Amino acid sequence: MNLQFEERPALHGYRIGIASLDAEKSLNALSLPMIEALDARLKAWAEDPTIACVMLRGNGPKAFCAGGDVVQLVQQCREHPGEVPPLARRFFADEYRLDHRIHSYPKPFICWAHGHVLGGGMGLMQGAGIRIVTPSSRLGMPEINIGLYPDVGGSWFLARLPGRLGLFLGLTAASINARDALDLNLADRFLRDDQQDALLEGLVQLNWREQADLQLHSLLRALENEARGELPAAQWLPRRERIDEQLDVADLPAAVQAISALQQDDDALLARAAKTLAHGCPLTAHLVWQQIRRARHLSLAEVFRMEYAMSLNCCRHPEFPEGVRARLIDKDQTPHWHWPDVAAIPEAVIEAHFAPAWEGDHPLADL
Fold it and tell me: Each residue of 66-88: pLDDT tens digit?
């Protein structure tokens, strides 16, 4: 199962629910059984009046969660070319339901997001009421490398970043440190990696009967004050003005051209981001441009419904299977994109990624 659940006794008969992702070798990548078990347990804890608070964390020092386990999914895509494999319908529906549940959770929900927090890990983290980052945190949406797109609610949280930073991060898979995450409202608190036990001990000592929010706030603030000296330097907010200027363009090919021109830039961070985009999937770049534009006025549930269509259609088209083959299966790092030129991808191909890939009502109509 690669999951651990614990209910730690607190004062007055309350308990703290602790869910730990436990697939350390794969950096806690989410498989379908993990998604389904976590969703079922979170639902049960939400309905249990003795569970006062929930914490979600990942075991091992390297990662909270490095994304979804896409290799098995892509093996099915290769067996069903041009079709949506059955696993994809279930995997994405269940993953987005889980993410939506966390966004709307009725109790204090703490996500301890240390180490790598990528793709599906961001989907889990961003819905949490209290998103904790540490000195080791490295957040990102790296889907441009594999021919997918920033899903798991990425349309929602990238569209809400200042200026054109959401577009930039989606196009370049750039890494976000703890300070960036706080600056961009992708995290709420900064604690040291070794403070998790102190946080759990504090949660057990709170009086959950009265003024629990006030006490929880005081606990987090006190711990954060101890950690402040280890906060890394900001990377992306200081570069926002330059990024906004580069991406002040009318269409996606112009955006790709503007960022790709930074590959020889004196700013090493921008140069690295530009190289990632230059080697990334051109179709993904179009999907990022479109998803951020379309999500601006959508509700959270509408975002997940849009992304469900996009994800199923990515499984039908060749880029996602090819990207995963090159990066994660054969690891030759040379994907052969079906549409290698960003300016030559037909509009109809892009639009087709937003079309329903199911009969009748939307499978996520009830969100």
Answer: 999 999 999 999 998 999 999 99
Q: Sorting pLDDT into bands at 50, 70 and 90, what band is 250?
A: very high
CA-to-CA distance for 82 and 37, rounded, in angstroms?
A: 30
pLDDT for position 1: 74
8 A C-beta contact, residue 113 and residue 132: yes
Q: Average pLDDT of 139-144?
A: 98
Kindly report each contact of residues 333-340 with a partner whose C-beta sits within 8 Å and lies 24 or more positions away, as own/partner: 335/147, 335/281, 337/147, 337/281, 337/282, 337/283, 338/283, 339/282, 339/283, 340/282
Walk across the sheet containing 15-21 and list its strands: 3-9, 15-21, 51-58, 109-113, 130-133, 189-190
pLDDT digits (tens, 9 = 90+) for 147-166: 999 999 999 999 999 999 99
How many Cβ atoms are within 10 Å of 130's Cβ, its own excluded? 18
Q: Percentage helix, strand, coil, to 5, in the chain?
A: 55, 15, 35
State how far the Cα of 270 lies from the Cα of 253, in Å rounded to an integer: 18
Indicate the residue type of 363: P
Place of tokens 């503007």: 258
Compute the distance between CA of residue 344 and CA of residue 282 in angstroms, rounded to an integer.
10
Report the mean per-residue pLDDT for the chain. Answer: 97
